[in-house]
Amino acid sequence: MKIITVDESRCVGCNACVRVCPVHANVTRLKEGTTDEFVTGIDSEACINCGECVKVCMHHARGFNDNIDEFIEAFENKKPIILIVAPAVRTSFPDGAWRVLLSWLKKNGNCTIYDVGYGADICTFMYNKYMKENNNKKLVTQPCPAIVNYIQKYKPEYLQYLSPVLSPAGCLAVWLKKYRKETKPMFMLSPCIAKTSEAEREHAFDYNVTFQHLEKYLSKKGIRWEENAQFEFDALEGSIGRLYPMPGGLKETLTMLNQSLVIRNAEGPHSVYDRIERYFQTEDSQKPDVLDVLNCQYGCNHGTALPKEPSTLMEIETTMDEIATRSIRETQGGFFGIGKFRRFKEFDKTLKLADFTTTYHDEHVHTQNPTTEDYTRIFESMHKFDIASQNVNCGACGYKTCRDMVCAIFRGMNVRENCIYYLKHSLKDSYSKLKEVYNACVEEVAKINQVSTQIIENKNNILSGSGDMQEQMQAMSDSLSELSELSSKIQQVMTQNK
Fold first, then answer.
1. What is the Cα–Cα distance from 215 to 228, expressed in whole angstroms?
2. 243 and 263 both lie in a single domain
3. Of 11, 31, 284, 401, which sits with the fewest C-beta atoms within 10 Å of its C-beta?
4. 61 and 7 in contact (C-beta within 8 Å)?
């Protein structure tokens, strides 16, 4: 399935998608039959499905596929299904609307509904257990599927650092299948476009249905979001795992179990991939124990496939503060500490680490880099003949540097006509040629006027019968020949400078 989609009829070639893509997976080309209109598609093999291009596209040319159609078919036919719900549901459908959502699904379908927050509790425990059993091995977290896609495609040599522990959704799915013997089709409800790729990669849960597409469907079905509703999950709700959707959520939960861990976190497409690269370039002795990373700037609470009116950032932070207070109290065993870490002690007795781990595969996107000669050749074709012009770095094309743009042109991912510097200099050249044509035409037209004046005089002399008739006729003939030659010159100048 192509997850990120493009409606080329809506694309205006504004380069906003090129600008935000962390892996340069966009392909810009001239529209057929034009020299100045562009359309930007996607190289699906290179795309990590982070969804940033969908978020920034103001022309509604970018969209995405998830498994909403499979969900609707199963739901409306009352087929027994399992829904595993991302903890971000609490902020994506604020003011209790998330309870309305889940109770409506429970009432109108044949659904068993579980909290992925419980899977996050399992995930936290398994991270801690894995590090203890592997001499505190350095890890990069993997709850974010866009990050996993990035490392598999662009940094496969560093897969050894990527945590083998499944995401919270994956951990919950395994727990349901292996420990509760669930066999029904399993749909994840999430705010994440990239979760669809996780479903396809891991096969822990079967489908991903985004909050955005789910809200559109339920609104058409007449759900009343403003109603009050009570709802309880069909198994234990997550405790500290409910903190995962916020930035550094995994860091917060891990330090509750092991305060000696050194954990760093990074979020946001404009910084997280650079942070990962710097992490890999750092000596192991200098690496933190855990690098907790998420593609989205404000965590999963601000995912790429939110409903139409999610919480504001301040509302999200308030909600998460309330969840954190309650979750920490529960984990610590209430006010008096009775049953401290009870859930995690139970995990230690009943769950096997091997059940909740995965292996990764090298899906390296092979790209060819331009040689020095290639850079020179392409730069010269763009009217860039010196160091200054080759480092304008205006960013209008969507790339940070002119060299990045040349690299994209070399790989067939962009065209020189999309460079504003090239267009300016092409316009200057066109203006110079047009000026030359204009000046040449002015000169020839002046000559034509002179010849025309002479023809008129010859005609008048012939009509008046003055002078030698034969000489007058010859002069008329010579003038007409000269006029024909001048006309041919103008046509030749125009043809040469088209």
1. 17
2. yes
3. 284
4. yes
Q: 185: closest CA among 111, 117, 89?
A: 111
What is the C-alpha to C-alpha distance for residues 369 and 316, in angstroms, rounded to an integer?
43
Domain boundary among 332, 356, 380: 356
Spatial distance between the Cα atoms of 121 and 339, rounded to a whole number of angstroms? 16
Residues in CB range of 34: below 8 A, 6 or more apart: none
Query: Is residue 431, in this structure, part of any structural domain at all?
Result: no
Residues 190 and 90 in one domain: yes
Verify that 300 and 403 share a domain, yes or no: no
User: Domain residues for 223?
Assistant: 68-356
196 and 339 both lie in a single domain:
yes
Domain-ending residue, one of 356, 374, 408: 356
Give the pLDDT confidence of 74-129 residue by residue, as tens digits: 999 999 999 999 999 999 998 899 999 999 999 999 999 999 999 999 999 999 99
Stretch 410-428: mean pLDDT: 89
Residue 158 lies in a domain: yes
Residues 60 and 80 in one domain: no
Same domain, 91 and 109: yes
Pair 447, 466 in one domain: yes
Provide the CB-side half-sphere exposure for 403 (13 A, CA): 9
Identify whether the C-beta of residue 166 lies closer than 8 Å to the C-beta of residue 130: no
The CATH code of the domain that includes 391 is 3.30.70.20
Identity of the highest mean pLDDT range in 36-40, 145-149, 283-287: 145-149
Asked whether residue 342 falls in the same domain as residue 446, the answer is no
Helix 211-220, helix 97-108: angle, nearest 10: 70
Is residue 325 in a domain? Answer: yes
Ranges 12-26, 200-214, 448-462: which has the least confidence: 448-462
416 is a domain residue: yes
Whose structure tokens read 């308030």? 318
pLDDT of 198 above 90:
yes
**pTM of the predicted model as reported, rounded to 2 decimal places:** 0.85
Average pLDDT over residues 15-41: 92
CA gap 99, 101 in Å, rounded? 5
How many structural domains are present in the chain? Answer: 3
Distance separating alpha carbons of residues 458 and 363, to the nearest angstrom: 85
